[in-house]
Design brief:
The complex is a heterodimer of chains A (250) and B (203). Chain A is an alpha/beta fold. Chain A contains 6 helices and 11 strands. Chain B has 203 residues and is mainly β. In chain B, strands 1, 4, 5, 8, 9 and 10 form a 6-stranded mixed beta sheet that branches. In chain B, strands 3-2-11-6-7 form a 5-stranded mixed beta sheet. The two termini of chain B are 19 Å apart. The chains are: A alpha/beta (250), B mainly beta (203). Chains A and B meet through strand 4, strand 6, helix 6 and strand 11 of A and loops of B.
Chain lengths: 250, 203
């Protein structure tokens, strides 16, 4: 039965040039890729990037798209350098503007936010876990959405919080977007921010800022972070079936 | 396409003398965790496993009854669609063959859906579940299966991509058709053979 179910393999890999590279934090860089004008994605989706060496040895990894849905054929992916990361180290230490990388995608039909969500959404990110949420927050701002959106971002410190300046600007310019940062190794930067790990009270406060329990809660980060943040959200009254998680490092 | 300046560490398929790592996979020593939602915590007292034919319940086991079924130990390689593979993982649990035998039935259809405590499902052909090919695993590495990895019990279908090995399983259901499960409805392959790289819908 599996033979009959097997469709013809498509050549799904495309070669895409790197247009621009920018440091986001000491360990996270953004890469702008020319994916072509036919590329369509939803906020929260990821792409797969593949590297091949001269002997034909190839490795692939998934990276979240930080840009909102676009028709201009350019997407931003942000890549965190991991210790001994075979692919991330290449991107941080070797890749340059003008290089061509193999890409397939977009991928993902679950960890996805759209303008048609039925109500408020709560986003909880640990470090680079904020990358797919940047697509959501940016789409929300660009489309001037009135659906409440709250982001709780946990990072070690301000310089290690990806997109921190941009998120503060977006909050200032968008009534329906609430942004709280918490730093685990530094003093809070603003009145409303915190200086501890994500907990129930912090999640409850963010829920209050978006006007009540969210229709969806998105949680992204390391497995440990996602477990802690999910427990905090559940303790704050979020319904388990409304939580979508994505864990990095898998 | 050769990537400029990339020298691989050679941890996967093309340089694998044992030919145990499928194309596009790399080996890991750790055991990554991937889950679509919150990790459900199920106490043994509230755990149960239900075997159904369509909507009809054939048999339901509680934790003790399920643990009284014959246990089997296997050592298998596992392959996650996100591209990591792990060799020689040790599992212990109840073969699907034993579950059917205890219920006293032969497979009435060609397809099954595995259901889980957190409301997810995945579809697997019966032929990939019986004949010693799969189990409901209760232990990993000789220890009770950790919650993060699907404990108290998960399906283990090691010859397919690992999302088919549903965590927190609470039942198997025979279906007339091959009905797409949770991930299969969200862009993942209906069958998921790692050796054919059947990762996504049109692979």
């Amino acid at each position: 039965m599996t033979e009959a179910a097997k469709p013809r393999r498509l050549n799904v890999w495309r070669e895409v040039p790197i247009l621009e590279i920018k440091d986001r934090t000491p360990f996270i860089k953004s890469f702008w890729l020319d994916v072509g004008r036919a590329f369509r994605h939803q906020s929260g989706q990821h792409v797969i990037l593949r590297l091949t060496d001269p002997e034909g040895y190839a490795v692939m990894r998934s990276y979240s798209i930080a840009s909102p849905p676009t028709t201009d054929g350019i997407i931003e992916v942000a890549i965190e350098q991991l210790v001994d990361g075979e692919v991330s180290t290449y991107f941080h230490e070797v890749a340059a503007v003008g290089d061509t990388i193999e890409l397939r995608g977009p991928i993902g039909g679950h960890f996805v936010w759209t303008l048609e969500e039925p109500g408020a959404s709560l986003l909880i990110a640990g470090g680079s876990g904020v990358v797919p949420m940047m697509a959501m927050v940016r789409e929300h701002a660009r489309e001037n959405s009135k659906i409440p959106l709250g982001l709780l971002l946990s990072a070690r410190s301000g310089p290690e919080a990806p997109f921190f300046e941009e998120l503060m600007d977006l909050e200032a310019s968008c009534d329906a977007f609430a942004f709280t940062a918490t730093f685990t190794r530094a003093r809070p930067a603003r009145m409303r921010d915190h200086g501890r790990r994500v907990d129930k009270d912090m999640v409850a406060e963010t829920i209050e800022r978006i006007g009540g329990l969210p229709a969806w809660t998105f949680i992204c980060g390391s497995n440990l972070f996602v477990n802690t943040a999910t427990d905090s959200a559940l303790a704050a009254g979020v319904l388990p079936e409304t939580i979508r998680t994505e864990r990095y490092g898998g | 396409m050769v990537t400029r300046g990339f020298i691989g560490k050679k941890t996967q398929g093309t340089d694998d003398p044992t030919n145990r790592v499928p194309p596009g996979q790399h080996l890991v020593e750790n055991f990554p965790v991937l889950t679509a939602g919150p990790t459900p915590r199920i106490a043994h007292e509230s755990w149960s496993f239900t075997l159904k034919i369509g909507p009809r319940v054939v048999k339901k086991w509680n934790w003790k009854e399920f643990n009284d079924l014959p246990m089997t130990k296997v050592v298998r390689d596992i392959h996650c669609v996100t591209s990591w593979s792990k060799l020689d993982t040790r599992w212990e649990g109840v073969m699907v063959d034993e579950i059917l035998a205890d219920a006293g039935i032969e497979p009435p259809t060609d397809f099954m859906l595995a259901h889980t405590f957190d409301g997810y499902s995945t579809n697997v052909p019966v032929a990939d579940l019986v004949g010693g090919k799969s189990m409901v695993a209760l232990k990993f590495g000789g220890e009770p299966l950790e919650t993060d990895h699907g404990g108290p019990a998960r399906l283990l279908v090691p010859h397919l991509y690992f999302w088919k090995s549903a965590k927190w399983i609470n039942g198997l259901q025979f279906t007339n058709r091959d009905e797409a499960g949770f991930w299969e409805l969200r862009g993942y392959h209906i069958y998921g053979d790692p050796w054919l790289e059947q990762r996504y819908t049109h692979d």
